[in-house]
Amino acid sequence: VGPFLRLLEAQLQDQRRDYEEEVEALKNQVDAMKEELEKQQQAFLQTLQLSPEAQVEFGLQQEITRLTNENLDLKELLEKLEKNEKKLKKQLKIYIKKVQDFEASQAAVPAERRQHERNMQVAVQRKEKDFQGMLEYYKEDEPLLIRNLIT
Question: So which domain of life are we looking at (predicted)?
Fold first, then answer.
């Protein structure tokens, strides 16, 4: 019973620590939001004291600042997407090369050999149904048979 209680106590302490850390993080977030709200209220009060022309100018400056920040964020996102595009293009080139190499290796196999392979595949399927595991094959076809069994 002792080890079980110690385990439960340790788990409870871990949960309490996590809870306290989460509460502290939320308090910090609330404090930051209060500060931001105070700044906005001060800016709003200052704006009210300005002439109508100055209010319009201040509003335009705020909008320009917001749009500039938004543009910077979009630029950063664009750069990330461009890097990802380059990476994907490189991978595509590698895969295209592998496919071409594979096709070239298949083209090197004589057509009659490929026909024999197709006939053998059909025969293997038929024999599996009829004999369930009994198989007759030529010794030179063993690598092909193994490859077909794996795929």
Answer: Eukaryota
Report pTM: 0.38
- Distances in Å between the Cα of 32 and the Cα atoms of 23, 37, 117 are 14, 9, 72
End-to-end CA distance of the chain, in Å?
Answer: 54
Residue with tokens 């600042």: 65
Give the CA distances from residue 48 to residues 44, 56, 58, 136, in Å, rounded to whole numbers and listed in that order. 6, 11, 11, 94
How far apart are the C-alpha atoms of 44 and 36, rounded to whole Å? 12
What sign does the dihedral 36-38-41-42 (CA atoms) show? negative
Residue 96 has pLDDT above 80, yes or no: yes
The per-residue pLDDT for range 37-62, each reduced to its tens digit, is 999 898 888 878 878 888 888 889 98
Please state, in angstroms and rounded to a whole number, the distance separating the CA atoms of residues 105 and 99. 10
Whether 134 contacts 127, CB under 8 Å: yes
